User: Which sequence fits this backbone?
């Protein structure tokens, strides 16, 4: 038995070394940077400051603005993305004749790189005569172009739409897989008792979708919290429109402040980890072993 455990440990050693060198070592190193005053524009400054960087980040107005931008996008993505994912999943499940074709088409936005999605949507929401403004003006719904990107509130709404466009295909496929596992006899029995389609959906289908909805919420949350490429493609590094990831990137690579940037990275990781913990905890409540 001891020889088997030793042989298993030897076989796992390469994987442990790779994970330790590419995951745990950078995490530990970044935490060490976050406790030091490391600004590469001042090469003589490299002293231990403890949690001072965390205090500076949390009291920085730009960080608070980026956090509010992220929270706004997060709420929009969760609400609109969850509704859209369920709707698309139900439509794909009911489209028996063209189900395979529609599924392949739905996957396309998810397969495109985030930066490509951002550039494509920039042409659509261009403040001047972009595609959307042109269509609205041709339909005589507006008289002057709408500044979709220059207005902060509209900009955050556009970013949320792009994230939903990118993440909903994967979420819809998860919901579709869950719907395929729900026996038709449940709906048929309820329908024989006089239940309407809406009652079947709310009382049978939706409760049985809870396991996949938890995964969908996690996917939407992480996508909204880690938004970066779309914002860069739309407006660059403007501080007013920055997300937490854009703010962190600017701190590290534009201002070369590795201490503040590392502290910001840990704060973002903590926020995402807290949200993910509660989602996973709520999911496991309904799982019986």
Assistant:
């Amino acid at each position: 038995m001891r020889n088997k455990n030793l042989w298993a440990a030897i076989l796992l050693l390469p994987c442990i070394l790779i994970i330790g060198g590419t995951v745990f070592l950078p995490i530990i190193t970044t935490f060490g940077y976050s406790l030091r005053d490391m600004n590469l524009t001042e090469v003589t400054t490299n002293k231990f400051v403890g949690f001072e960087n965390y205090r500076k980040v949390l009291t920085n107005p730009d960080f608070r603005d980026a956090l509010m931008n992220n929270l706004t996008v997060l709420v929009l993505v969760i609400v609109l993305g969850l509704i859209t994912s369920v709707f698309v999943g139900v439509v794909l499940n009911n489209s028996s004749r063209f189900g395979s074709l529609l599924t392949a088409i739905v996957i396309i936005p998810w397969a495109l790189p985030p930066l490509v999605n951002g550039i494509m949507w920039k042409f659509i929401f261009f403040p001047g005569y972009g595609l959307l403004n042109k269509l609205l003006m041709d339909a005589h719904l507006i008289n002057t172009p709408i500044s979709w990107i220059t207005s902060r509130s509209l900009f955050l709404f556009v970013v949320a739409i792009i994230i939903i466009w990118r993440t909903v295909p994967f979420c819809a496929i998860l919901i579709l897989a869950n719907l395929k596992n729900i026996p038709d006899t449940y709906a048929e029995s309820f329908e024989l008792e006089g239940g309407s389609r809406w009652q079947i959906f709310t009382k049978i289908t939706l409760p049985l979708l809870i396991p996949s909805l938890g995964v969908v919420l996690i996917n939407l949350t992480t996508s909204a919290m880690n938004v970066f490429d779309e914002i860069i493609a739309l407006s660059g590094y403007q501080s007013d429109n920055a997300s937490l990831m854009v703010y962190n990137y600017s701190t590290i690579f534009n201002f070369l402040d590795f201490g503040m940037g590392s502290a910001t990275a840990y704060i973002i990781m903590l926020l995402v980890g807290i949200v993910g913990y509660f989602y996973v905890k709520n999911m496991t409540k309904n799982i019986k072993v």
